[in-house]
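Table S2 (continued). Query chain:
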Amino acid sequence: MTMRKPLLTLACVLGLSACASTPTHYYTLIAPAGQSPASPAQAPFQFEMQPVLMAVQVDQPPLVIRQGNGSLAILENERWGAPLGDEFHDALTGQLERRFGSRDLAGLPKQADEPVLSVRTDVRRFESVLDQYALIDVVWSLSLRGAGAGPGSKRQTLTCSSVIRQPAGVGMENLVLAHQSAVATLADNVSRTAAQWARQPSTRCPS
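Corresponding output:
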């Protein structure tokens, strides 16, 4: 009996040391600037990005992985650089800025003689399956306010949705890269639709 207690204590200490030494990895949805296409011409409007609504199950710093039995695994040592809603907002904003050829002017003064496009996104699903795929299901709304900032200025809206699934290679880094590609595809959908819609109000959502 006298030997068992020290051995148990040593096992506990070693176990805690092993847990404490587990490295934490941080990831971002923001793709390197060189991987995003530049806009060939400036969009015919000013642009502002609204806050992103994110599915509550995944809107946290740790990555949340969907498992084959329908359960979710929260990976405390695999983390986003910020809460996922903020990561998604910043990643999509950067992608749209490059496609529109203009900066996000949310909260900043606007030119009174130019239209303003507002982009809102509601991420209904943000699904991560390790070694298989990344999926986003997003409802996005465009609101275009005509020149002039007064309450009587003309406003039109268009609401669309996109379900984007990207295959992922083996490992966590490839899963994150797949999500970056999904955000880039969403930016393509939003930017093309917005540019066409601003010039032709009868434009419909992409199929």
